[in-house]
Amino acid sequence: MRKWGPLIAVCLGACILLVDVTIVNVALPSMALDLDASFASLQWVIDAYALALAALLLAAGAFADRYGHRRAYAGGLALFAVASLVCGLAPDAGVLISARAVQGIGGAAMFATTPALLLTSYQGRDRGTAFGLWGATNGAAAAAGPLLGGVLTQHINWPVIFWINLPVAVVAIVLTRRFMAADGPLATGRKNRVDLYGAATFSVAAGSLVYGLIRGSDDGWGSPGTLVCEVVAALALVAFVVVEHRTAHRGQTPMLDLTLLRNASFTGLLTGAFLLQAGAFGCLALVSLWLQSLGGLAPIGAGLALSPLAASSFLVSALTGRHIQRLSPRLPIGLGLLLVAAGMLLLGAGMTEGASATSLAWGMVVTGLGVGLATPVLVSAATSAVPRQRAGMAGGAVNTARQLGMTLAIAVLGAVFASHAATTLTAGGLPHAADAADALASGRAKEVIASAPAGHRKAASDLAHRAFATGLDHVFLLSAVAAAVGAVAVLLMVRPAPASGPGRTSEAGKVSASART
Predict the structure, then answer these.
(1) Which residues pair with 501 in a beta bridge?
(2) 68 backbone φψ class: left, alpha, beta (φ>0; ψ -120 to 50)
(3) What is the pTM for the complete model shown?
(4) What CATH architecture does domain 5-180+253-515 belong to?
(5) 3-state secondary structure at position 385
(6) pLDDT of residue 320
């Protein structure tokens, strides 16, 4: 137990923070009814968590480097547990969204510190095994969320999907305190200050971009509010680049060393991580809503329909996670992304007016194979592609890219779905098509059908099915394109990390070699 206690602790943390990315998907219809939430609010229930997680990962990594990785991890677990309690008690959508954002802050502290904790807790073959099992947990946890959410929502109620985090977090904290090596003395001095300005500008850029995408779907892409958000995002991104350059020039540690982006392998891994999450997970919320609102499935049934993705992902990661660490990372990651693209095309091929849950099975399996093949390699490959002193920063950057990929994909794919669904509804002669498309995307298809005159409800039902199928078909196609682009980027840009070379110490070579064993 002492040997594997640190791994169990970080895997438990990974379970709750990644399950909570997707566990709400099948609970969205129940939340919409209980909290009277709009589609935009439902998007923010997902995005507030994922956005806070993505925007603060780099800052959390810098904070942990300054104050200690074990301290930051245990503190993140505690904050995550408290926020989960509030999520389940939320009386309205606003409180739930706010608590989800706080969950994301705690999750960022947990996620950012995990690679460093594994690197310091394990050596040699044990390190390869630890990274492989952690990668398997990552892939399976995100994919298993809908099934767990379906079981808890249907048999108890949706707040329980958050409260279940509390006992898991307590156990993880106990294991962390007992089995992980204590942090050393706090780093002091100007060079080790947390890059607050970098964290602030990056967070504003990411938040404004996602908010603008969601608002554009509701208010129109040319609306003043949408344009202001995107301008703020662009200005904040420019400010972030300037701040990071100045921070490095002053001899301080930036939140992200921008010189790392000159490394083609590292940039390729960031691109692959971003597009892997976007391609594989961005569509799941819409699929879950379709299964329950028009597919006639209860939450458990919807979760089971999505479970082939989880099962195949975990199986591949568990069986191959340790062994594929020996390969050049571009092979498993590139092939994994190609499988995700193929899975999305299969999902699109099965998405017709008369489609059912079984129509999704093979597409989910193939997508899961791709996720399970690519996920275990991403972080260890990134930490091996850069100098040893930047390994923690590299791991945080890859995890940031992953979470931003899914966050932005949810917003973009939601807008794509609404646009094509509205076009189909308009062509079918339905009045107020934009409002009806928003209702479909909120899981309120039955309301759209019931609003039609009694003699036209069969036609309204057929039109709703056709609109949802059309919207999802375009969503799947865009997801496939994203994954395919990611595969090309990885296969062309990523190269095996050298055992030694300019800017790398002999210890870096050891890290690189052990991460592949």
Answers:
(1) 504
(2) left
(3) 0.75
(4) Up-down Bundle (1.20)
(5) coil
(6) 67
